[in-house]
């Protein structure tokens, strides 16, 4: 019994260095970098995001800045182990909140016969992939 407990305890200590854990950590930093870069872009090129903002939302420029700041802050929370859980959940909520902008982008690109329509449609399932990715980090 004592040997069994020692082996289980040793395996739990080694787990953080497993390949699976290292892969999750790599993608955690990749995802955080993606959101930090996207958030910074909201401030450097707000016009890009104003163009996809649904028309029914008030204060579009302010919402672009708020969503950019949220992306940066939530990505930083995701990096810090003590705040990772809340950062992941906040990213999920943010991704759900901005999904209408991605739909608006696809509709606008379709109506304008924009040659980058395929990118707009690719963003829609990519959003779900990002939500799933953030959900993985609610457990890490």
Automatic annotation (TrEMBL):
**Which InterPro entries does the entry mention?**
DoxX
Segments traversing the membrane: 21-43, 63-82, 89-110, 116-137
Out of the domains of life, which is the source?
Bacteria
Checking Pfam families in the record gives: DoxX_2
The listed locations are: Membrane
Q: Which PANTHER family match?
A: DOXX FAMILY MEMBRANE PROTEIN, MEMBRANE PROTEIN-RELATED
Q: Could you identify this protein by its name? A: Uncharacterized membrane protein
Organism from which the protein derives: Dyadobacter koreensis
């Amino acid at each position: 019994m004592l040997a069994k407990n020692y082996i289980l305890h040793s395996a739990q200590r080694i787990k953080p260095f497993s390949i699976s854990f290292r892969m999750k950590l790599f993608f955690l930093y990749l995802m955080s970098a993606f959101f930090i870069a996207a958030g910074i872009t909201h401030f450097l090129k707000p016009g890009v995001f104003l163009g996809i903002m649904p028309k029914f939302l008030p204060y579009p420029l302010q919402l672009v800045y708020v969503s950019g700041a949220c992306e940066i802050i939530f990505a930083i929370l995701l990096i810090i182990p003590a705040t990772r859980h809340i950062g992941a959940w906040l990213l999920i909520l943010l991704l759900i909140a901005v999904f209408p902008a991605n739909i608006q982008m696809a509709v606008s690109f379709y109506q304008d016969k924009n040659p980058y329509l395929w990118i707009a449609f690719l963003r829609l399932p990519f959003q779900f992939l990002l939500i799933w990715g953030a959900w993985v980090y609610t457990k890490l």
